[in-house]
Design a protein that fits this description.
The structure is a single chain. The protein is α/β, with parallel strands linked by helices. The protein has a four-stranded parallel sheet, with helices on both faces. β3, α3 and β4 form a beta-alpha-beta unit. The longest helix has 13 residues. The chain is globular.
Length: 87
């Protein structure tokens, strides 16, 4: 079973994504704050990270940089989930 880490602060969106991804057979773990997200990735070793860019306590881009800077995590694909209108 493929493992996904979801980091999303919007509770409704988090629940919706969790429900649908688990329904499709993925094992999902996650958090609704950015603090501790890198540690969660280290512990879980997911196949994919879905990461909100605008978190209230962290910058999703900085979390991604942290993932990319660690050799054991650098290969994990990251999908950014954001409400930002610009690239």
């Amino acid at each position: 079973m493929k493992k996904i880490v979801l980091v999303e602060d919007d509770a409704d969106l988090f629940s919706l994504l969790k429900y649908n991804l688990e329904k499709e057979g993925f094992a999902l773990t996650g958090m609704q704050t950015g603090k501790g997200a890198l540690e969660l990735c280290r512990r879980e070793r997911p196949d994919l990270v879905i990461l909100d860019i605008m978190l209230p306590d962290s910058d999703g881009l900085e979390i991604c940089k942290g993932i990319r800077s660690e050799p054991e995590l650098a290969h994990i694909p990251v999908i950014f989930l954001t409400a930002r209108a610009s690239e």
